[in-house]
C-alpha cells in the first residue's frame, strides 16, 4: 500500500527552498549584516550633482564607508537650502584611531584631517564620491 506522490507539495517544497536560499545569499552575502558602522551627516551648501546613494566614502584613498542618503532641507528663517548627506563609516576601517563614541574622539579625527568634500570619481560619467 504505497501512497500516491503529491507533485504539487514537492514543487512547493522545492520552490520554497530556492526562495530561502536566495534570501540567505542576499542577506549573508552582502556583508553588511555583521559590520559595525557609525552614521555621520555631512552638510553641503553647493551642488552635489553626480553624488549617488552607494557611492564610496574615501579617506586618503582608502574606502572607509558608503553614502546612505542624500536630502534637501529648506531653512525658511535663513532662506537657505542645505544638502545633508548621510554616510556610514565602518568602525574597523581606521585601525587604532580614537573611537567616535569616546570623549573628544571626533575632534581628534577632525584634527587629523577628517573633512567632507566631493571629488570626481569618473571624468567620463561625472560621478562623484565623498572624500573625507
Please characterize this protein's 3D structure.
The termini are far apart. Strand 2 (56-59) and strand 3 form a beta hairpin. By secondary structure, this protein is α+β, with helices and mostly antiparallel strands. The protein has one domain (37-131). Strands 1, 2, 3, 4, 5, 6 and 7 form a seven-stranded mixed beta sheet that branches. The longest helix is centred in the first third of the chain and has 23 residues, at 7-29. It contains two helices and seven strands. It is elongated and about 80 Å long. The chain has helices at 7-29, 105-111, and strands spanning 37-44, 56-59, 62-70, 73-75, 80-90, 117-120, 128-131.
Would you count the extended β strands for me? 7
Q: What is the rounded distance between the termini?
A: 73 Å
Question: What structural category arises from helix and sheet content?
Answer: alpha+beta
Report the mean per-residue pLDDT as an integer. 77
Number of domains: 1
Count helical runs: 2
Strand content: 25-35%
Give Rg in angstroms. Answer: 23 Å
Q: How do you describe this structure in short?
A:
This protein is of the alpha+beta class and 132 residues long. It is 23% helix and 33% strand.
Amino acid at each position: 500500500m504505497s501512497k500516491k506522490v503529491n507533485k504539487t507539495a514537492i514543487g512547493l517544497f522545492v520552490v520554497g527552498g530556492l526562495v530561502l536560499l536566495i534570501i540567505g545569499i542576499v542577506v549573508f552575502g552582502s556583508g553588511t549584516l555583521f559590520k559595525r558602522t557609525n552614521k555621520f551627516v555631512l552638510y553641503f551648501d553647493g551642488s552635489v550633482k553626480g553624488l549617488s546613494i552607494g557611492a564610496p566614502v574615501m579617506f586618503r584613498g582608502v574606502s572607509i564607508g558608503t553614502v546612505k542618503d542624500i536630502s534637501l532641507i529648506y531653512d525658511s528663517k535663513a532662506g537657505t537650502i542645505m544638502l545633508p548627506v548621510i554616510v556610514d563609516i565602518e568602525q574597523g576601517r581606521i585601525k587604532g584611531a580614537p573611537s567616535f563614541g569616546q570623549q573628544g574622539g571626533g575632534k581628534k579625527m577632525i584634527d587629523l584631517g577628517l573633512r567632507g568634500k566631493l571629488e570626481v570619481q569618473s571624468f567620463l560619467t561625472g560621478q562623484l564620491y565623498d572624500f573625507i
